[in-house]
Design brief:
One of its GO terms (biological process) is rRNA base methylation. The chain has 8 helices and 22 strands. By secondary structure, it is of the alpha/beta class. Helix 4 links the parallel strand 16 and strand 17. The protein binds S-adenosylmethionine (SAM).
């Protein structure tokens, strides 16, 4: 069926930027459509259980439909954004429905989820402070098409922060490279470019501003400084963070501060408390918690990546009641089995914390947990594990940290007597 076109009405939204409809009793996941629309859709792949398709013609349009602000959005073009064709209000509503649906299906949790807008980038554009461009065989930078290795070359990215576009990555060719990542700070004039050469030899670099730091990525992810600083500085509240180019940092300029506040609201730390920041990256939440628990308390961060752990130690070095362990969270919690903890934030990668870490954390007798998640499916699974271990789910907040895409950031609050 691949390549054929079918006429169908799509009903619901599904996780991943899809809408779901049926054709001849077969389930069809359709991109570039909106719930309620009748569309002509071209089948892009087929499995035993369902079809995937791109809406190539809108026969009956949703009132939520808008003209995509980016010329590269649409079937067969850039695969980066999923919801450019929906108003921002509709995008947030759809993401809220997806989170609620995942919570219900996976964990039996019935909640309405409201996705909150973040400050900055009110048109949903110009927010992304880190952008990885793929490079095609001719050296042109662009983005991969959806579910494909093919690169769609672009002149500019509409969701990239203006300072990312100003780095000029798309104004030049990158022969001999497979990938170029552009990084800018949301609060300082710092920026960096991380290049991945095709072979062991580093090809000549195209002209870049003197002030732009350059790093090289090796297979396996290790970074080497070519020129300038190792990363960028970011300021949140009155604290400055050093973030190495390979370390994680929130990509929306409004996210670091909004999520820190949400974590403090969720945990309500008190002076003297012991707080954990698990998967702490460069120490964002540990910094916020350290201010709240004060010198009578303590904050313990855990981060597996050596550079991120070094960043976190450096960023929080003025508060001796903060300690950062470079370790795997599961391994570290096994060592801390007899420790008494009051509150904990977890902010794992997409895979989530998993049942084992949820149970290990429950054994530390902490009264509150804030779970920060960028994947509603693994969040739902893990919330089920926390509830099974005796916690009550108080609240699920969601933030539009990635406008125009299907991604959404959640902060769930768990507590127990
Ligand atoms: C989503 S980031 C969160 C970082 C930080 N909370 C922030 O907001 O900037 C997840 C972090 O977990 C780290 N990580 C991934 N797996 C880990 C593990 N098993 N144990 C410890 N840290 C891990 C990653 O290196 C990354 O820095």
């Amino acid at each position: 069926m691949v390549g054929t076109e079918v006429d169908l009405r799509v009903d619901n939204v599904a996780h991943g930027g899809w809408c779901v409809g049926r054709h001849d009793e077969q389930v069809v996941f359709v991109r570039h459509a909106l719930p309620g629309e009748r569309v002509r859709a071209r089948v892009t792949s087929q499995t035993k259980r369902f079809l995937r398709a791109d809406a190539v013609e809108i026969i009956e349009s949703s009132p939520d439909r808008v003209q995509p602000p980016c010329p590269y959005a649409g079937p067969g073009k850039c695969g980066g954004c999923d919801w450019q064709h929906a108003s921002l209000e509709a995008q947030r509503r759809l993401k809220g429905e997806v989170v609620a649906d995942q919570l219900r299906r996976i964990a039996g949790i019935d909640r309405e989820v409201v996705v909150e807008e973040l400050p900055g980038a009110s048109d949903g554009l110009g927010w992304r402070t880190r952008v990885r461009f793929a490079v095609d065989d001719e050296g042109r930078p662009g983005f991969r098409r959806h579910r494909s290795h093919e690169v769609h070359p672009v002149d500019e990215c509409a969701i990239a922060h203006p300072d990312v576009n100003a780095l000029g990555v798309t104004d030049t060719t990158w022969r001999g490279f497979t990938e170029v990542e552009a990084i800018t700070s949301a609060s300082h004039a710092d920026n960096a470019v991380v290049v991945t050469p095709r072979s062991a030899r580093l090809p000549a670099l195209p002209p870049l501003r003197e002030s732009t730091a350059v790093l090289r990525r090796f297979k396996g992810g290790r970074l080497q400084q070519v020129r300038g600083r190792r990363g960028v500085r970011e300021t949140v509240g009155d604290r400055e963070y050093r973030v190495s180019a390979g370390s994680f940092w929130q990509v929306h300029p409004g996210a670091a501060s909004a999520l820190s506040e949400a974590v403090l609201d969720a945990l309500r730390p008190e002076p003297g408390d012991t707080a954990l920041d698990l998967y702490c990256g460069a120490g964002l939440f540990a910094g916020a918690l350290a201010g709240a628990v004060g010198p009578q308390g303590r904050v313990l961060g855990v981060e597996s990546e050596s550079e991120a752990a070094r960043d976190a130690r450096h960023n929080l070095r003025d508060m001796p009641w903060v300690r950062v362990e470079q370790a795997d969270v599961g391994a570290q919690l096994r060592e801390w089995v007899d420790m008494r903890v009051d509150v904990a934030v977890v902010d794992p990668p997409r895979a989530g914390v998993g049942e084992v870490v949820a149970e290990q954390l429950a054994e530390l007798r902490n009264r509150r947990v804030a779970y920060v998640s960028c994947d509603p499916a693994t969040l739902a699974r893990d919330l089920g594990a926390f509830i099974g271990a005796g916690y009550t789910l108080e609240e699920v907040r969601a933030f539009d940290s990635f406008p125009m895409t299907h991604h959404v950031e959640c902060v769930a609050t768990l507590s127990r007597e």
